């Protein structure tokens, strides 16, 4: 990430970190699993637009987040561009430019946050099918993937959000499909542990193999 982007990022964090602690009282479990230095891919479920900010709250490090292209081109695009987020075209089957940018960041020792579901999950499924971006980033750089799950009520002053961070998934000796499977299963396990029971009972869990045969491998 460029120096000027880091300055803007830190400025935004000074505003949003205390604000989110006041509004949502986040509970962070497993913070120690995020490395204090070196490259890592953060990968987790995606329920709300605020999820990337909650991930940022979990670490003192600068997190380079993949964000949909519409945010970069929209009314507040200057904020996303200024903070150094990487634009992703969700309407395209492949995003080589975004993937290459993420790989460059990882090779420079940075942390990259990606949502493998590629969109917010407002369905009856526990998780949507996982795209292969996080797995490919890890495979190409050797960086571990740190799985996480977010659950809770996104209601200011009335809700509470829990973020549970799991043990690293290491890519050594694995292909991208195996890495992606481990990420998916890890995120699902974490989410089942923190999601309220009444909500969890209403969700259907599709195993990796169930949806894997229906979707082509994409990056």
From TrEMBL:
<protein>
    <recommendedName>
        <fullName>Phospholipid/glycerol acyltransferase domain-containing protein</fullName>
    </recommendedName>
</protein>
<keyword id="KW-0012">Acyltransferase</keyword>
<dbReference type="GO" id="GO:0003841">
    <property type="term" value="F:1-acylglycerol-3-phosphate O-acyltransferase activity"/>
</dbReference>
<dbReference type="GO" id="GO:0006654">
    <property type="term" value="P:phosphatidic acid biosynthetic process"/>
</dbReference>
<feature type="domain" description="Phospholipid/glycerol acyltransferase">
    <location>
        <begin position="40"/>
        <end position="153"/>
    </location>
</feature>
<dbReference type="Pfam" id="PF01553">
    <property type="entry name" value="Acyltransferase"/>
</dbReference>
<dbReference type="InterPro" id="IPR002123">
    <property type="entry name" value="Plipid/glycerol_acylTrfase"/>
</dbReference>
<keyword id="KW-0808">Transferase</keyword>
């Amino acid at each position: 990430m460029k120096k000027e982007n880091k300055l803007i990022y830190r400025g935004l964090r000074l505003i949003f970190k205390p604000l989110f602690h006041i509004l949502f009282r986040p509970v962070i479990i497993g913070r120690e699993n995020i490395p204090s230095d070196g490259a890592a891919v953060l990968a987790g479920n995606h329920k709300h637009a605020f999820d990337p900010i909650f991930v940022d709250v979990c670490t003192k490090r600068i997190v380079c987040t993949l964000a949909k292209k519409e945010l970069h081109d929209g009314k507040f695009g200057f904020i996303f561009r200024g903070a150094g987020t990487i634009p992703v075209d969700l309407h395209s089957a492949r995003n080589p430019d975004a993937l290459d940018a993420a790989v460059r960041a990882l090779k420079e020792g940075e942390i990259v946050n990606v949502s493998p579901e590629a969109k917010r999950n407002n369905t009856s499924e526990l998780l949507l099918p996982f795209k292969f971006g996080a797995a490919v980033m890890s495979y190409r750089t050797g960086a571990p993937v740190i799985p996480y799950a977010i659950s809770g009520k996104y209601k200011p002053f009335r809700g509470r959000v829990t973020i549970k961070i799991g043990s690293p998934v290491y890519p050594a000796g694995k292909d991208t499909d195996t890495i992606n499977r481990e990420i998916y299963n890890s995120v699902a396990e974490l989410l089942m542990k923190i999601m309220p029971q009444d909500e969890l009972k209403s969700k259907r869990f599709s195993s990796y193999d169930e949806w894997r045969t229906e979707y082509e491998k994409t990056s």
